[in-house]
């Protein structure tokens, strides 16, 4: 019988044929980890064959590593990942990718890097070598570092002089969204993660569903929910960075993905969509542009509504004057003022809240819904790691995609851990969670909704899905 590691290696090779053919067809070279990133060089351009081939390569290669490396090393590398996060934060906050961008491909000696960022060269050298061993930066000569594919995405779009003269500008440019998200993740997520055990083992917080008793609150030694804590006057920098970081995270998901799926076009002319917790209305505006026959009310907290109106006045005053998009101050834990809407929409809301609070939000909408109202939740649907079938408890909902991975791959996440990380990150920030399809079905049923269909764009939960529910 063929060994599993050979089977995995053969899978890698077979799928590399697909990637090479794609490069030849596009007349481009395969990307190198050593060179700075060029936009469009990812193997995901066609979203079909090539995407599937790169997913299989990643899944097979990771299983190969997990099989060949000792279990001690495999698990220790995960336990050590906080150290890597600390190192990446140093690189981001000390503007090291920006310094190396100005140094060019020959790189810069660690003494010169450290003198620009006013840090200890012995310590910075260790940190850069750790990162280079993990494929972030490259050591081109002993103690001389340069940017590579992974570090080059950490540049912030301003000269080093500007970044040093005015540190407040660090995350001010749109290009800084990715470094801001790296700094946010490695800082706050890291702090919260290091208090997960204390939070989950302390009887006062172990079963808590309160946003202000999450691990990050313990890390900050506050009894405020993280979003209230971020709004304190002395947390201004953190709040700014968080805002830019969220833009960076949202870039991981093409906007048109969330615009596709649910049949917005099939709604009758003049149908009303209530965007509950709709923020500054970006998604409603995008939907309104695609489907001019619909009307939207964006509901959120008072300061957010104010910001949304100001922004729309600037971006698209006609849309506001026409009344096709309007804003309304509303607390989604209170009675929903718009009864019998055609669609109630919750985008990136339910994952912020524990089951207790999500159920209240959903119940308020159920009380307002008419028999023909529909609910559209936009959030990730977390896949199970095991293969599913009706015989092992699979929830059968139209539209759920199943991972299509060949043997001998056994981990149905395909090594794509991002959605699962996202779920635990929601827990440590605010006791929220991403949910499996079974989790959504149960939650919706408790609040009086029937989960009737799901629109998905991938089977691994990387991108958000639309979950359609109807009143029970
Ligand atoms: C993650 S954002 C999602 C915003 C928007 N739906 C989107 O996808 O861009 C969560 C939103 O919930 C709003 N929010 C938080 N608590 C709220 C409440 N009690 N009532 C109404 N909105 C609330 C926040 O102000 C924020 O705009």
From TrEMBL:
Keywords assigned: Methyltransferase, S-adenosyl-L-methionine, Transferase
Where is the O-methyltransferase C-terminal domain positioned along the sequence? 206-383
What molecular function does GO assign, one term?
O-methyltransferase activity
- Keyword Nucleus on this protein? no
Q: What GO biological process terms does the UniProt entry carry, in alphabetical order?
A: methylation
Q: Which InterPro entries match?
A: COMT-like (IPR016461), COMT_C (IPR001077), SAM-dependent_MTases_sf (IPR029063), WH-like_DNA-bd_sf (IPR036388), WH_DNA-bd_sf (IPR036390)
Domain of life, source organism: Eukaryota
Record protein name field: S-adenosyl-L-methionine-dependent methyltransferase
